[in-house]
Write a structure and sequence with these properties.
about 70% helix; mainly alpha; single chain; about 160 residues
């Protein structure tokens, strides 16, 4: 968590944080009415930005996704305690993609017979999969913790969305 605390010293990181918040909200708001389960889960095609900003912008992107998720839930009326867990899940999704991208030993693009661009795409999918499960598990955990049944059983829908 040290990079998240030290990023405030660099103006470029703060600008990436603000850019992440604006971009995520601009992608999320047009689909505000497409709620799969009202007041619990909506269709979010903008979730594809979560690992991208994590890999490209690191802690600024992950924190930006966290703040944008909270702001979007507040604007759409999906607030409450589940919004915090949903935002935490997306933060972990983004930050885990960054960590796995930096420390993964799999360099698929260097294998013989595979285009390097396809190799990087496969590597990106590889580092994004654990975050997809994290982003789906945290709201399900919160719904189970606060006994908001039957919402924990719908976490597989959120995994499919991710």
């Amino acid at each position: 968590m040290k990079p998240i605390l030290t990023m405030w010293k660099y103006p470029r990181m703060v600008s990436w944080l603000l850019a992440t918040i604006i971009l995520y909200l601009l992608v999320r708001l047009p689909f505000a009415r497409a709620q799969v389960i009202p007041y619990y889960m909506e269709f979010q095609p903008g979730v594809v930005m979560v690992p991208l900003v994590g890999v490209f912008w690191g802690p600024a992107g992950a924190l930006g996704v966290f703040l944008a998720s909270l702001a979007g839930d507040w604007l759409l009326g999906l607030g409450g305690i589940l919004a915090w867990y949903r935002a935490l899940g997306l933060f972990l999704f983004s930050y885990s993609a960054k960590l796995l991208w930096d420390f993964s030993c799999i360099h698929i693009g260097k294998q013989r017979g595979l285009n390097p661009h396809w190799g990087q795409a496969i590597r990106f999918i590889y580092v994004s999969l654990p975050g997809c499960f994290l982003a789906a598990a945290w709201p399900a955990f919160a719904a189970d913790l606060f006994r908001l049944y039957p919402f924990p059983y719908f976490s597989s829908l959120q995994l499919v969305n991710n």
